[in-house]
Amino acid sequence: MLDEVERWLARRSWSVADRPLDRLLAAKRAGGTTVSVVLPALNEEATVGGIVSVVRRELMSGAVPLVDELVVVDSGSTDRTAEVAAAAGARVEHRDAILPRIPAVPGKGEVLWRSLLVTGGDIVCFVDADLREFSADFVTGIVGPLLTDPDVRFVKAMYDRPLSSPEAAGAPGAGAQGGRVTELVARPLLNLHWPRLAGFVQPLGGEYAARRSLLERLPFPVGYGVELGLLVDALDLVGLDALAQVDVGVRLHRHQDDRALGRMAAAIYRTAQLRLERGHQVRPRLTQFDRGAEGFVPRTHAVDTEERPPMAEVAEYARRRRAA
């Protein structure tokens, strides 16, 4: 198995510099391929506008028409996320207004799943809305292999993710990497149960692109488990050689506290468990503790277990695709 992973790394791991922008534009024109960029957003007014502005300015101009549509899907923000995104030039869709026949539930995967109904690109590129100092390389890097190699179906970004910003290089903890849930939960799970995926540097990263023809055939975990679920299911559906990753540099973003990371870890473990034991009926809970005036107080949270079916099975989506 190690030899297979090493061969895959040699054949399916690239740098963003390996595919210059002019090559991508030529491939897009030759194939008539359309590209959608989707930003799932919940209370990201501080960063979403900057990301939208970079994509609009560098990838949607007359000189560089790489991206055909840019959509921010607002997941129920209570701040000015929607207004800031629209002012920067994005089309804003609201989670609850998409497919109202099925009541929405909280969760990132829910938003990504619904985004397929309000986008039309042959390639769909997901980018988290909390990135700082955003570079267009995050889009060109992961879209590139899909435009230039017909055998590639799913591409994840890989990057460094420092816990502190470069300007705080002298501070305690500087140089430490984020991705604690990746290293403590996701990577061990993948290595133990799906060793063919052991070569992915950032299996839980929120920046990835795929062909619509693949995404519409995949179930979407509604919560934090969506990235692991999509990766595992894509492997099962199209095989390892259809998956790839691209180094796009450095990712700066907001880091979660330990409690949020614990809930994320539990959801990811549950997503893996469902795939290992389809039909398992356990409805798990996660109990964490806060110290109160009279000792430790338990706080119990439900762990995401719901999943959305492949979008190709949703009647509204099928009608929309036929009309298009």
Number of strands: 14
Compressed to H and E, one letter per element, the order equals HEHEHEHEHEEHEHEHEHEEHEEEH
Give me the CATH architecture, please: Alpha-Beta Complex
What is the level 1 CATH name? Answer: Alpha Beta
Q: Number of helical segments?
A: 11
Could you state the oligomeric state of the chains shown?
single chain
Spatial order of the strands forming the largest sheet: 1-10-7-8-5-2-3-4
Fraction of residues in helix: 25-40%
User: How many domain modules?
Assistant: 1
CATH-assigned homologous superfamily = Spore Coat Polysaccharide Biosynthesis Protein SpsA, Chain A
Low-confidence stretches: 165-175
Shape: globular
Q: Which strand-content bin applies to the residues? A: 15-25%
Structural features:
single chain, 324 residues, alpha/beta, Spore Coat Polysaccharide Biosynthesis Protein SpsA, Chain A, eight-stranded mixed β-sheet, two-stranded antiparallel sheet, 11 helices, 14 strands, 21% strand
